[in-house]
Design brief:
Layout (H helix, E strand, L loop, with lengths): L17 E2 L5 H26 L5 H28 L2 E4 L3 E6 L5 E6 L3 E7 L2 H5 L2 E8 L6 E8 H14 L8
Antiparallel strand pairs: 1-2, 2-3, 3-4, 5-6, 6-7
Length: about 170
């Protein structure tokens, strides 16, 4: 019985920063739109109810307006956040950077990787996407997640990082 070949990274140069696939943008937009739509509706409803002179009809209309404004802002924000995510796998380890205003850059040396997880929700499976989570040694910032990564790239990244982890010796 032959062993299946490990997945190969679909990117020839692993030392460059790679963006998330474009098909993941819809999931970023959807998640941001839902959260901000609920927040917008709640804020508009609270503001209208605090005004004692407004009617229930006026409060409902403001809640719908808040819902729509929040959803539209969420779609815009999700698309922007998706465009700022980048990842890189080089000889020293795995790195993820994101954000424009609040920037985050996390580098995980290969020697600090404890284990690797890949998760896929129903929508991610539909769009052939996955979330790669790299668990590290230590307690602060013990995991780095890369959402909406191409499913094949996530498998290949997990295999590449797993090959870099030195096998533990049972002789200790």
């Amino acid at each position: 019985m032959t062993q299946p070949n490990p997945p190969v990274l679909p990117y020839p140069n692993t030392d460059t920063w790679h963006p998330l696939p474009a098909r993941g943008r819809i999931l970023f937009c959807l998640s941001h739109a839902i959260g901000l739509a609920i927040l917008g509706a709640a804020l508009a409803l609270a503001a209208s109810l605090l005004n004692e002179t407004s009617s229930w009809l006026w409060a409902g209309l403001l809640a719908v307006a808040g819902l729509l404004a929040g959803a539209l802002f969420g779609i815009w924000l999700g698309a922007r956040r998706h465009s700022y995510y980048r990842w890189r796998l080089d000889e020293t380890g795995f790195a993820v950077k994101s954000g424009k205003l609040w920037q985050s850059h996390t580098h995980v040396p290969a020697t600090r990787v404890q284990h690797l997880d890949i998760s896929r929700g129903p929508l991610q499976r539909h769009y052939r996407l996955a979330t790669l989570t790299v668990h590290t040694a230590g307690t602060h910032g013990h995991a780095v997640s890369l959402p909406c990564l191409d499913g094949d790239a996530a498998e290949a990244l997990r295999a590449a990082l797993a090959r870099r982890i030195e096998p533990e010796s049972d002789a200790d």
